[in-house]
């Protein structure tokens, strides 16, 4: 009989002894997380902006543009002004950045054990090869030592992350979020006049319309989008402790503050004039708080729509090839909204952590932000995946006005509010017998169902003016929606 270590089952031991193939050794590599595995297709556009490869590409971009900026502004005495062909050659290093470049950087980093230094050496290697493309007369080799000139790694990193996040938000996340809100707004307008029983505290309440409730959510989401659209993306390039020490030591006559500002703005970012070694990341915390708030409102939408589905107000479109339940063939589960909830919770948790962590750095710099910022991609990935789920979920819904009408017709007591409010107004106008309207309606409706006949009979006993009594007697739960339909028209999306 075989023996195992104490506390280890024989089954576990057989697996550990090689009874199964090690999945970590499978080629191509298997993703550890769901965003790069199961859900890769939905979040793939973010790879161009928030992956490790994207970070290195932006680093190369920043280094190239800094070199071009220094030479074009003639900041360093004796440095040649680059020709258009030489600038194009440098920028081609960014444009042709591919899997081969990624592998080359990885190989260099194994020697440097420093990611930004590997980028510097890559660019210097390309400059050394420039004569093969531009001819022996090129001046690029003469400016090789201006690569990473007076920079600390964080000068390159902070600008790279700003460009990455800006690209991810403006080119990927915002278009998807805008499309979702536009689709929701269209649903709100389509169903603006469909009466629906409201439920406050889960109890039957003053009727509304389906469209008005969807419009509320669209309006809330749209407001957050406007905040996110107005986000600032800050950057700095001012040296190891934010003092331009190396800059002024090397070229004291240059206006380094002006050079820094013009360069950051050249990249399309907002210049941060006062920093330590790191850009303070406050703009990131502000942006992530807004995106997390968008997530939480979208989570509210997902739970509300899930509830409307369970109440029969929405029918999920069949025939889309989905299996609702493995054992109950009649079911079509609201999985899109449930998956969205989970992904929104994951995204918001990451965004909250990013926002809380990134605004703090010990003294002039610590490295916690380096690890933290590598999780920006997953934070946006889970949000983007949730947006995709909600959009597909909404596209698979049909409203069922008949189900809503049945619910309304079963709850005539909600008109008690209308009657007692009319009594209050009549009493103020001098009509006698209008005392204690709330208490009288409470006695009629609290804890019991009433019918239309019950309500009309009650109204007939009140002594209201004829026109008021007629208006109340003609009212039904389905017609008691106030200005709900009109309010949908105020949606500015």
TrEMBL record:
Residue ranges annotated for the Fumarate lyase N-terminal domain, each copy included: 37-340
EC number: 4.3.2.2
Protein's organism: Actinotalea soli
GO BP, sorted A to Z: IMP biosynthetic process
Region annotation (Disordered) ranges: 1-25
InterPro entries noted in UniProt: Fumarase/histidase_N, Fumarate_lyase_CS, Fumarate_lyase_fam, Fumarate_lyase_N, L-Aspartase-like, Pur_lyase, PurB_bact, PurB_C
Top EC class of this enzyme: lyase
Pfam families: ASL_C (PF08328), Lyase_1 (PF00206)
Functional summary from the UniProt entry: Catalyzes two reactions in de novo purine nucleotide biosynthesis. Catalyzes the breakdown of 5-aminoimidazole- (N-succinylocarboxamide) ribotide (SAICAR or 2-[5-amino-1-(5-phospho-beta-D-ribosyl)imidazole-4-carboxamido]succinate) to 5-aminoimidazole-4-carboxamide ribotide (AICAR or 5-amino-1-(5-phospho-beta-D-ribosyl)imidazole-4-carboxamide) and fumarate, and of adenylosuccinate (ADS or N(6)-(1,2-dicarboxyethyl)-AMP) to adenosine monophosphate (AMP) and fumarate.
Catalytic reactions of this protein: (2S)-2-[5-amino-1-(5-phospho-beta-D-ribosyl)imidazole-4-carboxamido]succinate = 5-amino-1-(5-phospho-beta-D-ribosyl)imidazole-4-carboxamide + fumarate; N(6)-(1,2-dicarboxyethyl)-AMP = fumarate + AMP
The protein's name: Adenylosuccinate lyase
Pathway linked to the protein: Purine metabolism; AMP biosynthesis via de novo pathway; AMP from IMP: step 2/2; Purine metabolism; IMP biosynthesis via de novo pathway; 5-amino-1-(5-phospho-D-ribosyl)imidazole-4-carboxamide from 5-amino-1-(5-phospho-D-ribosyl)imidazole-4-carboxylate: step 2/2
Annotated Basic and acidic residues bias: 14-25
Top-level taxon in the UniProt lineage: Bacteria
Residue span, Adenylosuccinate lyase PurB C-terminal domain: 361-481
Polar residues: bias regions: 1-13
Residues passing through the membrane, by range: none
Keyword vocabulary terms for this entry: Lyase, Purine biosynthesis
Molecular functions (GO terms): N6-(1,2-dicarboxyethyl)AMP AMP-lyase (fumarate-forming) activity
Lineage, opening ranks: Bacteria, Bacillati, Actinomycetota, Actinomycetes, Micrococcales
Similarity remark: Belongs to the lyase 1 family. Adenylosuccinate lyase subfamily.
